[in-house]
From TrEMBL:
Organism: uncultured bacterium pAW1
Similarity-based family: Belongs to the AHA1 family.
Sequence ranges assigned to domain Activator of Hsp90 ATPase homologue 1/2-like C-terminal in this UniProt record: 138-264
YCII-related domain mapped to chain residues: 23-106
Name the UniProt record assigns to this protein: Uncharacterized protein
Length: 272
């Protein structure tokens, strides 16, 4: 009965432009691996773990881990094609340096439990907050729409935008499409909550020059209040920064950056 249930769920995943999924089986060099790993193999397997961890953070690897009896490595990838998935696996340090081989096949990922990794947000937070406020000559509806739609963002910033307006939907500003994947902008940031014409909250990440901090998310909350017809106050808050010198630099970066963004938005609606 379980098999029939999974098969019945398959059609719901035939969404347009949905990523394809692939199951890769990493095959170890010998039956008593990893107990008999050499020092060189241990180093390579450490590189292998770091490689898959980065791909997991980029959502190109959905899950990965060792299977026992028999021993092999299981990896589920989200990719645009079988060729791309093969390239990802071929570039795995354990494969590229001759420790493991692999087999790969397409699969349909019918069921997946939602899981928010503990490391997605800084465990220790500094309490530092960025707060900005502007008043613009538009209705609350128009102001809210400008921040919750790709067309709205692009009306004041020359960037590519991907917004899926739902809780858990994408909220991505791509500042540099030519940059490597994962370094183009607010990739993998999600909408946390919203109230039409009143509030929007979403995740945000650090710029690429702060690689360690970029792996985690901070939170932006924007409130919209039309205090009189055609005059809306936008209260902007960015919080959830971690602790340490590099996180302090990220905070300082956004203290300046968000001021510039809000100024550009205000100028764009004032000119209309």
């Amino acid at each position: 009965m379980a098999a029939l249930f999974v098969l019945a769920a398959i059609p719901s995943f035939a969404e347009e432009n949905a990523p394809m999924h692939f199951f890769a089986r990493l095959i170890p060099p010998r039956q008593d691996f990893p107990e008999t790993m050499t020092a060189t193999e241990q180093k390579i397997m450490g590189e292998h773990f770091a490689y898959l961890k980065q791909l997991t953070q980029e959502k190109r690897v959905i899950m990965a881990g060792p299977c026992l009896e028999p021993v092999f490595g299981a990896v589920i990838l989200a990719s645009g094609s079988l060729e791309e998935a093969r390239t990802i696996m071929s570039n795995d340090p354990s494969v590229a340096q001759g420790v493991n081989t692999f087999e790969i096949q397409p699969m349909i990922l019918s069921l997946l439990a939602h899981n928010v990794p503990a490391h997605r947000y800084p465990k220790e937070q500094s309490g530092k907050v960025i707060q900005k406020s502007i008043t613009v000559p538009v209705s609350a509806h128009d102001a809210w729409t400008a921040w919750t739609s790709a067309e709205g963002i692009k009306s004041f910033l020359p960037i590519q935008v991907s917004i899926d307006l739902k809780v858990g939907g994408k909220y991505e500003w791509l500042f540099s499409e030519d940059a490597p994947e994962g370094q183009r902008g607010s990739e993998d940031c999600l909408i946390l909550s919203y109230i039409p014409d009143k509030m929007l909250s979403f995740e945000w990440n650090a710029p690429p020059q702060y690689a360690d901090q970029r792996r985690q998310r901070t939170i932006v909350v924007i409130l919209f209040e039309e205090r009189e017809p055609g005059q809306t106050t936008i209260d902007f808050t960015h919080h959830g920064f971690g602790v340490g010198e590099e996180w302090d630099k990220v905070h300082a970066y956004f203290e300046n950056a968000w001021g510039s963004v809000l100024t550009r938005y205000a100028e764009s609606v004032t000119k209309k």
